[in-house]
Design brief:
single chain, 7-stranded antiparallel beta sheet, 17% helix, 202 residues, alpha+beta, 2 helices
């Protein structure tokens, strides 16, 4: 009888362990939602030094747990339905991480708590020239051009983390051929379906 009770207790303990470590976490994951509009706070202007326009994508965690080690990179930039340059792996800057005192090893990754939001700085334009400037960290060289000529572009980005499946998004941007940051606009933001993600992840 004692042996049967011991076995039953062991089975119950195993079930609780499976629930705690594997089953429950499957239902309590972070869930990210992405949004862009051509208005504040997604299209933000600054007057420091020279007037500039930033296009920002909001990333909100509507899941049950914090989203850990969130990072964003460019998968490709397309112009006229063709690949434009080699931007694979180029980091996309978190708007809250431009400070010089941020640890270089940590600045590309951050945690988004339950119900919290962060913004991604995708591109900027100013009165100094007519080009589109990709936002990077501390003006460090990344081995690829950070300026795009005025035109329409489709920027495909990936947002990944350590406790959720990556999201692949398509963000269309455009810029008029003039020295005016008002000419920079976002056109459309979409989350790509799995069958389209394979084109960029394989």
């Amino acid at each position: 009888m004692i042996g049967v009770i011991a076995i039953a207790i062991s089975i119950i303990a195993l079930i609780f362990s499976l629930l705690k470590d594997f089953i429950i976490p499957c239902f309590q994951k972070p869930k990210l939602k992405f949004k862009f509009e051509n208005d504040i706070p997604f299209r933000r202007f600054t007057t420091s030094h020279t007037r500039s326009c930033f296009l920002r994508i909001r990333v909100r965690n509507v899941g049950k747990t914090p989203a850990l080690n969130c990072r964003c990179q460019i998968l490709s930039i397309e112009k006229d339905n063709e690949i434009y340059g080699d931007y694979t792996g180029c980091p996309v800057r978190w708007a809250s991480r431009p400070e010089k005192d941020v640890n270089p090893l940590d600045r590309e990754r951050l945690e988004i708590g339950q119900g919290e939001s962060e913004f991604l700085d995708t591109a900027t334009a100013n009165y100094c020239d007519e080009k589109i400037h990709l936002c990077q960290y501390h003006n460090e060289g990344i081995g690829t051009p950070i300026e795009l000529e005025p035109n329409d572009y489709n920027v495909v980005i990936i947002v990944s983390g350590s406790n959720f499946r990556p999201y692949v998004l398509s963000f269309r941007i455009t810029k008029t051929n003039e020295k005016n940051p008002d000419g920079l606009k976002g056109i459309e933001l979409n989350i790509l379906r799995k069958k389209y993600q394979r084109n960029y992840l394989e």
